[in-house]
Every structure is written in structure tokens, then in C-alpha cells.
Design a protein that fits this description.
It holds the Pfam family Response_reg. Keywords: DNA-binding, Phosphoprotein, Transcription, Transcription regulation, Two-component regulatory system. This is Response regulator. 25% of the residues are buried. The protein folds into two domains: 125 residues, Rossmann fold (3-Layer(aba) Sandwich), CATH 3.40.50.2300; 56 residues, Winged helix-like DNA-binding domain superfamily/Winged helix DNA-binding domain (Arc Repressor Mutant, subunit A, Orthogonal Bundle), CATH 1.10.10. Strand 1, helix 1 and strand 2 form a beta-alpha-beta unit. The protein starts with a strand and ends in an 8-residue tail after the last helix. Strands 2-1-3-4-5 form a five-stranded parallel beta sheet, sandwiched between helices. It is α/β, with parallel strands linked by helices and 204 residues long. Helix 7 crosses helix 8.
């Protein structure tokens, strides 16, 4: 999990210090924030990891921060720390995409295990996003005619049929097909279909 970080967002300094020590004792990199606003100021599009988030804080609450992270498409897993009275709120957040919630007082090892699992998901998410960005960049290099040929190749149509439908020669189809395969980094129509059917971003 090289590069994976757990971000502790809690307005209680004692909890931040205790959790920081706990995660570091298990070899997990930690960054702490005293408010939701401070974490938002730190966030950037390339940031991945797991946010351990107190559900109730002064200023912006944990739920409000979670909603904001969803709005901006933040690539982080979120685990809420919640008191007994906040469980319904935390369950609702999980239904909206939060990774998990842990009730206070919590078992130290159980919390760390859940966070490590979330960090593993964050790594998969980062890899999926990177692959998606690479695919989008390749598709952007295709000309309109290459896209038209690609659609028909994926439909399993022969070069002659493609030529007839587009009103061009078979030789021209072959040229567009070769350039299409080169730009997409594939050698066959099957590889092209597999590339375009890449898995979507993993979810908890």
C-alpha cells in the first residue's frame, strides 16, 4: 500500500493524537486535521486514501464534508466515527457511498483492520482511474472517421461492409483500421473490445 494515507479529521485533539499513534504503530501513514474545512483546503484531485471522519464537529460537520467530497468526486474512502445516537445518520451516509462507520468506543484493532481494507480499495480505485484516463486520452486521438470505423469493427462487420456503409474503398477502411488499432494499442478487434470494456471504478 505504498503511498496510501489515512486522513484523520476530528476536532478533538486527544482523539487525533491517539488515532495517529494507533495507525502509525501498524505502519500506516497518517495526516491529521482539526476541522472539515482544513481537510477541504488540503484536498486536491490526485489525493487518495481513507478519511476517518468524526460525524459531529464544530463548523462543517462530518456529514457535510462527506457530501462535499461526493460533489467534487474525491477519490477517498470514508469511514465515520460515530456516537450511538448518530448511527442512523451514519447508516444513511453508507447508503450514499461512505465506506463504513465505527461506533465509539471502538476496538482499536477492528478500526485499523477496516481502514487497511479501505486503503486497499483506494489503491484499486486509483489504478482504475488512471486506466480510465489513459483510455480517454487514446480515444481523444481518434479522428471522426476512425471512430466510425471503430463502431463498425466492434459490431463485427467486415471491411467490405464498412466500406459500403461509409462510402469509401476497402483499402481506405484498412488504413483507418490499422491507425485505429495503433492508437488504441491493440492488434485485434477482440483486444479492442476488451480494452473498451475495462472495469469501472471499484466501489465498497
Amino acid at each position: 500500500m505504498t503511498g496510501s494515507v489515512v486522513f484523520i479529521v476530528d476536532d478533538d485533539e486527544a482523539i487525533r493524537d491517539a488515532l495517529s499513534w494507533l495507525f502509525q504503530s501498524r505502519g500506516v501513514a497518517v495526516e491529521t486535521f482539526a476541522s472539515a474545512e482544513a481537510f477541504l483546503a488540503h484536498w486536491h484531485p490526485g489525493l487518495y486514501g481513507c478519511v476517518v471522519l468524526d460525524i459531529r464537529m464544530d463548523g462543517m460537520t462530518g456529514i457535510e464534508l462527506f457530501d462535499r467530497l461526493r460533489e467534487i468526486g474525491a477519490g477517498v474512502q470514508v469511514i465515520f466515527l460515530t456516537g450511538h445516537g448518530d448511527v442512523p445518520m451514519a447508516v444513511a451516509a453508507v447508503k450514499k457511498g461512505a465506506r463504513d462507520f465505527v461506533e465509539k468506543p471502538f476496538n482499536d484493532n477492528d478500526l485499523v483492520d477496516r481502514v487497511i481494507e479501505a486503503l486497499e480499495w483506494a489503491v484499486l480505485q486509483r489504478e482504475s482511474d488512471a486506466a480510465g484516463a489513459c483510455l480517454a486520452a487514446r480515444l481523444d486521438t481518434l479522428t471522426l472517421r476512425e471512430r466510425q470505423v471503430m463502431e463498425r469493427v466492434l459490431a463485427g462487420k467486415l471491411n467490405k461492409v464498412i466500406a459500403d456503409e461509409l462510402g469509401i474503398t476497402m483499402r481506405t477502411v484498412e488504413v483507418h483500421r490499422a491507425r485505429l488499432f495503433e492508437k488504441m494499442g491493440v492488434k485485434t478487434a477482440v483486444e479492442l473490445a476488451q480494452t473498451l470494456a475495462m472495469p469501472k471504478r471499484p466501489t465498497p
